[in-house]
Design brief:
Number of strands: 6
Strand content: 15-25%
Number of domains: 2
């Protein structure tokens, strides 16, 4: 490991610890040349699948694009930043755990739709109207009816409070 201060290649590990979450290793190092100390972290890096678009072109997965799409749908909606981050994390985990090297953009859109339906019904309709290219009011009505069915089913499955 190269020293960040003097660029010397000869450094020694003084201490190694596993993080509380168990997902990284922290190492304290000392440069043998300038005697300065610094910390490095070792983490697992899993590659995201390549996105295959509708036209057949391929591009790297970009978390910022996912965040931008979700934020656009959630604009002026009462959804916390923590809830948004959790939704993004769930989508990224599903992509990583799929084990696929390539994934169709349509599959990502469906993951986004599922998360938006969970987060905010209005944001879900906004995203669906663009994602599914609604042509008329009937398609909006169908999407709203789909949400109504989900809400009613959810309410029916909850135990009643006295």
């Amino acid at each position: 490991m190269r020293c960040p201060f003097c660029q010397n290649d000869d450094t020694q590990v003084l201490d190694t610890r596993v993080s509380e979450e168990g997902d990284s290793i922290r190492r304290r190092r000392r440069c043998s040349n300038c005697d300065k100390r610094f910390t490095t972290y070792e983490r697992i890096e899993l590659a995201m699948p390549v996105i295959v678009k509708k036209n057949g072109s391929r591009s790297e997965f970009e978390s910022s694009k996912l965040r931008g799409s979700l934020m656009l749908a959630l604009r002026k909606r009462p959804v916390s930043a923590d809830a948004l981050d959790a939704a993004i994390h769930r989508i990224e985990e599903k992509l990583r755990s799929s084990g696929e090297r390539e994934i169709m953009s349509v599959q990502i859109g469906e993951l986004v739709m599922r998360e938006l339906k969970r987060l905010d019904k209005i944001a879900y309709i906004r995203f669906a109207s663009v994602y599914r290219s609604f042509e008329d009011v009937a398609e909006f009505r169908d999407a709203i009816d789909e949400i109504d069915v989900d809400v009613k089913a959810s309410a029916a499955s909850k135990p009643r409070q006295p």
